[in-house]
Amino acid sequence: MSNIPSELKYASSHEWVRNEGDGTFTVGISEHAQELLGDMVFVELPEVGDEVDAGEDCAVAESVKAASDIYAPISGEIVAINEDLEDAPETVNNDAYGDGWLFRIKASDESELENLLDAEGYANTIDED
C-alpha cells in the first residue's frame, strides 16, 4: 500500500497539494502514481509565470514505461518549479512527497481546494484501480 500523507489534498489524477500557508501550494505526484510510472527519466515542468486552470495539463512525467501528463489540481500562477528534477528526475521516485515536488502555484481561487480529496478519499480511488 502506498504512503498517503493525511495533511495533503489529492486530485483523482494522482497529484498532491500542500498548503504552504502563504497563498502558495506545492504540487507533486503521489507515491502511487510514481510506482505506476516506474523509474523517472525526464520531467517537463511548466514555466514560472504560466497561468494554469484546474484540470489543465501543465507538466509531463516520462518514465521508462510511459509518459504521463501532470494536471494542475487548482488554478493559479506557477511561482516556482523544482529545477533539481532537470538533472535528477529519479528524485520523484525516491521522495514523492518531499524533494520530488514538481511546482508551486499561487492559487487564484483557494475554494477549488474543496474539490480535492483528503487522504482517505484518495486511498479509496486508488483501491478501485
UniProtKB/TrEMBL annotation:
Name this polypeptide is given: Glycine cleavage system H protein
Keywords for this protein: Lipoyl
Family: Belongs to the GcvH family.
Entry note: cofactor: Binds 1 lipoyl cofactor covalently.
Naturally occurring in which organism (per UniProt): Pseudoalteromonas neustonica
Protein role: The glycine cleavage system catalyzes the degradation of glycine. The H protein shuttles the methylamine group of glycine from the P protein to the T protein.
NCBIfam families listed in its UniProt record: gcvH, PRK01202.1
InterPro entries reported for this sequence: 2-oxoA_DH_lipoyl-BS, Biotin_lipoyl, GCV_H, GCV_H/Fam206, GCV_H_sub, Single_hybrid_motif
Cofactor(s) this protein requires: (R)-lipoate
Gene, per the UniProt record: gcvH
